[in-house]
Amino acid sequence: MADVTYYVALPFQRDDSGSPVAGAAEECQSSSGALRRAEVLSKTAGCVGAVAFSRTGDPLIGEFGDAQMLRKFGDVPDDLSGLLEHDPEKWVPVFPRDKREAFCAEIMLKQKR
Questions:
Q1: Lesser CB count within 10 Å: N end or C end of the chain?
Q2: Cα 54 from Cα 68, distance rounded (Å)
Q3: What is the per-residue pLDDT for 43?
Q4: Residue 26's domain spans which residues?
Q5: Structurally, how many domains does the chain consist of?
Q6: CA distances from 59 to 64, 89, 96, 109, 110 (A)
Q7: Range list of H helices, 25-87
């Protein structure tokens, strides 16, 4: 399967000690969508900032390259290396229909024949 690029908006809140911590990541359809969503999240009550990033790889075998930072909004940590791990199970889709699962299922059925 060809590589797929995921676009993600990740908000940040403050913990009890006042340090910024990552909230729930949201998958977006495009880089511009991730940028818009991150900007909106950064201005949401309770959030102190957000980042938009992308990651490219093959979801069938689970291999992904390093995340590419698109932009930071507001107060976010300088070192995000530990936060930008690939875990789509934790992402919340922000578009109405995610066809990726159906597409992957179709490929898996074809491979079994």
A1: C
A2: 5
A3: 94
A4: 4-112
A5: 1
A6: 8, 12, 20, 16, 17
A7: 31-42
